[in-house]
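Write out structure tokens for indole-3-glycerol-phosphate synthase.
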Amino acid sequence: MLTDLIAGAVADATARRAARSQADIERAAAARPPALDVLAALAASSRVKIIAEVKRASPSRGPLADIPDPADLAARYVRGGASAVSVLTEGRRFGGSLADLEAVRAAVDVPVLRKDFIVLPYQVFEARASGADLVLLMASALDQSELVELHDLVESLGMTALVETHDATELQRAIDVGAKVIGVNARNLATFELDRDLFGTLAGGIPQGTIKVAESAVSSAADVAHYRSAGADVVLVGEALVTSDPESTLAEFLAV
Ligand SMILES: O=P(O)(O)OC[C@@H](O)[C@@H](O)c1c[nH]c2ccccc12
């Protein structure tokens, strides 16, 4: 499944690169105002922080919400207290696009995450050219030399990488590249199984000073509290927000 998602993302990025050259996208990335300070926005604090995700659908859950106006949804997330907004830009199974990222970037002044299956430098330049501050790099989608190369590129463009892991080996690889923001995804993207305890199992191995993000499977304030007590600085929430009134759900989740 993960291989299909990556293959689709590469095919789509390759088609975009045929229409808009690498040199052109690099120029557009360089022309953007500088990326926002993600480490400040997500820094460990006495309260849990939330990255709120714009997510229309997923391969495991099918259609979730139409989201005709992603900019409006993102603005509601920020009013509700989100510290950053994640935008799924994968089009085939998640229903997202770079246009969604652009629209959200224009609507909010908090950091914006490009959430996609990023394996090519071109996709990193696209992220910056569309205004992203934070870029998802999935350890499971990259070998170590690719992870190092893309992590360096993200940082050289002034952005921050959220390095996603789902086992101890991937966590060690994230630490080895010097990731400053490390995520643990409760959903195994190979099997789609959920494990809310995985974050707690791995969190003890994340170095002090790293921002720890618990990703996926938050459906209630109790789930936020569970991740928080296991050491999460930040939780990343999609489905629960796009399927409810986001401002009141965020208020509940931030009250833990
Ligand atoms: O909708 P949820 O269960 O709240 O999950 C959000 C987010 O963690 C999830 O969308 C996600 C985490 N890692 C990913 C990698 C690719 C695509 C999607 C994801």
